[in-house]
Structures are given as C-alpha cells and as structure tokens.
C-alpha cells in the first residue's frame, strides 16, 4: 500500500517570549472569574470575562486581539499602579492594628498573628502589582512591534 504524505504542512509557530503574557492573563482572569462569580461581583466578573476573551484571541493570534490586548495591557498597568499607590498609603495601618492587638491581653497572641498574616498577604499583593506594571507595559510594547504584528493573522 502506498503511503500518502502531506506535501503542505502548516508552518510551526516559534516560541516567542511575549506569548507567555496572554497565557498568564488568561489564567489569572479565569481564577478571577471563579472568585467574582462566587462573591457575586458582577462588574468585575464581566471585566474578567473580557480579559479572558481578549487574551484567548491573542493566544490564537487573531488579528483583532493584538490591538485589544495592547490597550488592555496598558489599562491593567495603570490600574495596577493606581491600586498599588492606594495600598501603599495603608502601610501605617498595620502598625496601628498591631498596637491595638497588644492592648487586648486575652486576644493578643492570636490578634498579632492575624495582623502579621494580613501584612504578609498585603506585601505579596503589593509586590505582585509592582512587578506587573513593567511586565504589562513591556507586553504592550512587544505587541506593537512589526515582527509581532506579523504573527497575527486575520480570520478566514
């Protein structure tokens, strides 16, 4: 029996560092969808679904998704900066909470532990926002480069 070989192969996509960004956005938005759905936060749920749709389109390298993701990355960077500034303005609140926890002798050990845990969570969140800002701006810049633009194709 003769074997039939395909003469036309689809071009393989080479790995591009920028393509990790849409995957991370997609996965974080999916997690956010679950949380916002559980807590009934409809406006944030719609926003997370929009982020999933745009980043999914960029993963598939659809032409409409590139400029959309570029704008979305800049908006998310601005949002991260604004919320990081608001979070940083609350820095002194942990010292006040710790002082209050120490004034209650029957709850001081548990209360101080809770304040420390909340502060660590707050520090991780602030750190992630600070790291996200340049990464999102880098992604927006990459999506505007001609070499990356050429990787996005219009849908047939």
Descriptive keywords:
156 residues, 0% strand, 74% helix, mainly alpha
* Morphology: elongated
Biggest sheet details: none
Can you tell me the number of structural domains? 1
| Helix and strand pattern | HHHHHH
Uncertain ranges: none
Radius of gyration: 22 Å
Instruction: Give average pLDDT, whole number.
Output: 90
Task: Write up this protein.
This protein is an all-alpha fold and 156 residues long. The protein has one domain (17-149). It is 74% helix and 0% strand. The chain is built from 6 helices and no strands. Helix 3 packs antiparallel against helix 5. The longest helix is centred in the C-terminal third of the chain and has 37 residues, at 108-144. The mean pLDDT is 90.
Structure, briefly:
74% of the residues lie in helices and 0% in strands. The protein has 156 residues and is mainly alpha-helical.
What is the topology?
Elements: H1 20-39, H2 42-59, H3 65-88, H4 92-103, H5 108-144, H6 146-149
């Amino acid at each position: 029996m003769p074997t039939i070989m395909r003469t036309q192969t689809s071009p393989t996509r080479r790995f591009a560092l920028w393509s990790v960004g849409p995957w991370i956005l997609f996965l974080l938005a999916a997690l956010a969808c679950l949380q916002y759905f559980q807590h009934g936060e409809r406006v944030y749920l719609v926003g997370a679904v929009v982020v999933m749709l745009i980043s999914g389109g960029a993963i598939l390298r659809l032409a409409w998704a590139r400029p959309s993701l570029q704008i979305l990355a800049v908006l998310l960077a601005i949002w991260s900066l604004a919320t990081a500034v608001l979070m940083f303005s609350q820095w002194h609140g942990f010292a006040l909470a710790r002082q209050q926890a120490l004034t209650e002798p029957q709850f001081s050990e548990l209360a101080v532990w809770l304040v420390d845990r909340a502060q660590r969570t707050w520090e991780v969140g602030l750190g992630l926002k600070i790291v996200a800002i340049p990464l999102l701006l880098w992604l927006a810049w990459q999506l505007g480069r001609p070499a990356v633009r050429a990787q996005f194709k219009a849908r047939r």
